[in-house]
Specification:
Number of domains: 1
Number of strands: 18
Oligomer: single chain
CATH superfamily: Hexapeptide repeat proteins
Strand order of the largest sheet: 1-4-7-12-15-17-18
Shape: globular
CATH topology: UDP N-Acetylglucosamine Acyltransferase, domain 1
Distance between the termini: 48 Å
Number of helices: 4
Length: 185
């Protein structure tokens, strides 16, 4: 039998009120509070908090405040820049490639809920992983929905709501986000 955490990471319905998951979210909130309280603080202390939060060394620059569910389900490439007020709901894996830029207020969601009201009343939820390729720029206020892949080198315009996969090397914009044009190679 799978644990609730194993179900969560596998994209199956799981109970978010599971004791282990609640403890892991609380741990992340404590680390985020320390990170966010250090807004302009010493880089070494911020780096140590990020390593503890993500479970791996990173050279990412995250401009606080930053918010996530677990942190451990987020994989960051080299030289990632995340601007003010980013929210990443990482109940499923979130993979962010190298040299990715997030504008302010970018939101990345993996968490989702059953369509059926009867199933939602059970309090269960599930997640779909998100993958963002290298050299992607996501403009301020954009929302990346569960299960989306954004191809390398693409640019997502500010305020877009990305509900479907975006191929590599394009500019996409709107709600819902649509291909605007291809970028030169």
């Amino acid at each position: 039998m799978l644990t609730e955490k194993q179900k969560m990471l596998a994209g199956e319905l799981y109970d978010p009120e599971d004791v282990q998951l609640m403890a892991e979210r609380q741990r992340a909130r404590q680390l985020l509070q320390r990170l966010n309280d250090r807004c302009g603080g010493e880089q070494q202390a911020r780096s140590e908090i990020l390593i503890e939060l993500f479970g791996a060394e990173t050279d990412a620059f995250i401009q606080p405040p930053f918010f996530c569910d677990y942190g451990a389900n987020i994989s960051l490439g080299k030289k990632v820049f995340i601007n003010f007020n980013c929210v990443i709901l990482d109940v499923a894996p979130v993979t962010i490639g190298d040299y990715v830029l997030f504008g302010p207020n970018v939101q990345v969601y993996t968490a989702t809920h059953p369509i059926s009201a009867a199933e939602r009343r059970l309090g269960l939820e599930y997640g779909k992983s998100v993958s963002i390729g290298s050299d992607v720029w996501i403009g301020g206020g954009a929302i990346v929905c569960p299960g989306v892949t954004i191809g390398a080198g693409s640019m997502i315009a500010a305020g877009s709501v990305v509900t479907r996969d975006v191929p590599q090397g394009v500019v996409a914009a709107g709600n819902p986000c649509r291909l605007i044009r291809s970028l030169p190679t």
